[in-house]
Amino acid sequence: MAAKAKRKKNTAYSTHEYNVTKITPTGDQTETKTVLGSRDAFHKQLEIEAQGFFALVHNNTLDAEEYRSPGYEG
Length: 74
Prior knowledge:
Layout: E1 17-23, E2 29-36, H1 38-50, E3 54-59, E4 64-68
Antiparallel strand pairs: 1-2, 1-3, 3-4
């Protein structure tokens, strides 16, 4: 029986650093968390939105905005 080939894990975004900013409905930035990896950034974003705030996710490694909550115009 042939050996099953192992798949290489895509780690491109798992090493990127992200800032996830919590923004009040009035537009005030209340706190910023720095996380490592897009998966952690996504879960932090969901946590912030579940609390009723807007979330802004910025990729520090690429220096680009990755996500902005719908309805936040800031």
